[in-house]
Specification:
A hairpin with a 2-residue loop joins β4 and β5 (about 80-85). The protein contains four helices and six strands, in the order αβααββββαβ. The chain starts with 9 loop residues before the first helix and ends in a 12-residue tail after the last strand. The chain is elongated, with a radius of gyration of 26 Å. With about 110 residues, the chain is α+β, with helices and mostly antiparallel strands.
């Protein structure tokens, strides 16, 4: 009893290859978001090498780029004072060329009369 053997040509293989790579390209954004995770402040400190107060200033007040526009670090507050930042947002924020940090205005002390 003979079985028919189907032989794939290089054109067939090329067609399968382009179809598979096309599907992978469609899934790329989904996979990138699935790999993204929230970082706690302590993990951000370790990741960036900056201190706690600097990171909290980025979240509350932001930093200026070289054109003067203020950008705040996008964070979610899971509990009061417990901020979490997506790793991708932290990397994106790090690409901003900082000109000067934005700090809250300090109230001037009144002189005693």
């Amino acid at each position: 009893m003979a079985h028919a053997i189907e032989i794939l040509t290089s054109a067939d293989l090329e067609g399968f290859k382009s179809e598979i790579f096309g599907k992978l390209e469609e899934l790329r954004p989904v996979l990138e978001n699935a790999m993204d995770r929230y970082l706690k402040i302590a993990e951000i400190i370790e990741f960036t090498g900056h201190g706690d107060s600097t990171i909290r200033n980025w979240i509350k007040y932001g930093k200026r780029d070289r054109f003067g526009k203020v950008y705040k670090l996008q964070a979610e507050e899971f509990a009061p004072g417990d901020y979490r930042v997506l790793r991708s947002k932290l990397i994106e924020y790090g690409k901003i060329k900082e000109c000067a940090a934005v700090l809250p205005e300090r109230k001037k002390k009144r002189k005693a009369a």
